[in-house]
Design a protein that fits this description.
single chain; alpha/beta; two-stranded antiparallel ribbon; binds guanosine-5'-diphosphate; binds magnesium ion
Length: 360
């Protein structure tokens, strides 16, 4: 599967955040927290399934704030220092501050101590060793949203998550990728019937990506929209149906009822539906993402995660904690607002970018 793996003409964010003297200071890092960058839209001819330097520098730039917390925290280890209990405690604090979560931080430190306790270590060694450990942790969850070709109807993906997580945007990005890179026909269904403008927002993404659209007015029954969209998609011979949903977590009972009803009603047509339920999480919510996985997991079976807003988030470590705690596959990551800003999740690239280890 080739989507997300493509050359990008993005500018190198690393350079954009470096100050004149080449040293990245806290002020520079704060300055990164601006509107997402305009990116040059590539055309299909650039898809090569291989080189990913552009996106990697974008990820590195995006994770710069998270990385900075770690590299700054390792300041005391710039000169070699004996790895004793005090040093381990400091390291653990650094990882917690970088949003890996206390449990994951403790597990990583324990493993690190097993190898190096009593030895002299410096910051570079620590970063490289931890990057390897983080990579090993992330590797099992580095998944892909695999769309199967079915002969009895579309492959159905239900997309859920709290308001503002990036569901609608992500659906637009997925639709575009599936059509452009895999030649699939896609329909999107406006199951967020709660928020005014939500239906129009999805329609706009459908127009942008060229996907077919099914929706009703605000206030319509979301389960009915999903049910009817499936029927229309079957009749139209569409390959993939992506269903958007509402995310009003302030009313958990209603949301749970609504999501469960969507699933129940879809299964009247075909008991395998939905083929995938994807939870979209906003990385900038940090540790709150844990309770979102928990809460949505209590409502419906979540098959995989998509983590958005990793461009410029200071909370990139949260993905490591999620991997350790829930072991759910991460199907993709969002690194911007544009149609092209959804990427495959690569464990090694992510771990090294987060820990500030550069390839050279
Ligand atoms: N910077 C950035 N913004 C994103 C990303 N994904 C979504 N957004 C923005 O987040 C906001 C909410 O997205 P939306 O798709 O409407 O969320 P929904 O309520 O879950 O459907 C919008 O302004 C999007 O442009 C991302 O990966 N990076
Ligand atoms: Mg939405």
């Amino acid at each position: 599967m080739i989507w997300f793996k493509k050359k990008s003409k993005d500018t190198d964010n690393k350079e954009e955040i470096a100050s004149d003297d080449g040293v990245i200071s806290a002020e520079d890092i704060e300055a990164v927290d601006v509107e997402p960058k305009e990116v040059v839209q590539d055309d299909a001819a650039d898809v090569d399934g291989g080189a990913s330097q552009g996106w990697l520098s974008r990820l590195t730039g995006g994770l710069a704030k998270s990385t900075f917390k770690i590299t700054q925290g390792l300041g005391d280890f710039v000169t070699k220092r004996k790895l004793d209990d005090d040093a381990l405690e400091e390291l653990e604090d650094v990882l917690i501050a970088a949003d890996l979560g206390p449990h994951t931080a403790a597990a990583l430190i324990e493993e690190f101590a097993r190898e190096r306790f009593g030895k002299d270590v410096d910051d570079q060694e620590i970063k490289e060793a931890l990057a390897l450990q983080v990579e090993a942790l992330l590797e099992p969850v580095a998944g892909r949203l695999q769309i199967e070709a079915l002969d009895n109807g579309p492959y159905v993906v239900l997309v859920c998550g709290v308001n503002g997580a990036g569901k609608t945007t992500t659906i637009g990005k997925i639709a575009e990728r599936l059509m452009r890179d895999e030649g699939k026909s896609v329909m999107v269904a406006a199951g967020d019937t709660f928020r005014a403008a939500a239906v129009e927002q999805l329609r706009a993404w459908a127009d942008r990506s060229g996907a077919q659209f099914y929706g009703k007015d605000t206030g319509a029954d979301a389960a009915a929209v999903a049910y009817e969209a499936y029927q229309v998609a079957v009749d139209a011979g569409v390959d993939v149906l992506l269903i958007d949903t509402a995310g009003r977590l302030q009313n958990k009972t209603n949301l749970m009822d609504e999501l469960q009803k969507i699933v129940r009603v879809l299964r009247k047509s075909n008991e395998d539906l939905p083929h995938q339920s994807v939870l979209v999480l906003d990385a900038t919510t940090g540790q709150n993402a844990f309770s979102q996985v928990q809460t949505f997991g209590e409502m419906i079976d979540i098959d995989g995660l998509i983590v958005t807003k990793l461009d410029g988030s200071a909370k990139g470590g949260v993905l490591v904690g999620l991997a350790e705690r829930f072991e759910k596959p991460v199907y993709a990551i969002g690194v911007g607002e544009k149609i092209d800003d959804l990427r495959a999740f690569d464990a090694r690239d992510y771990a090294r970018a987060l820990m500030g280890v550069s390839d050279s």
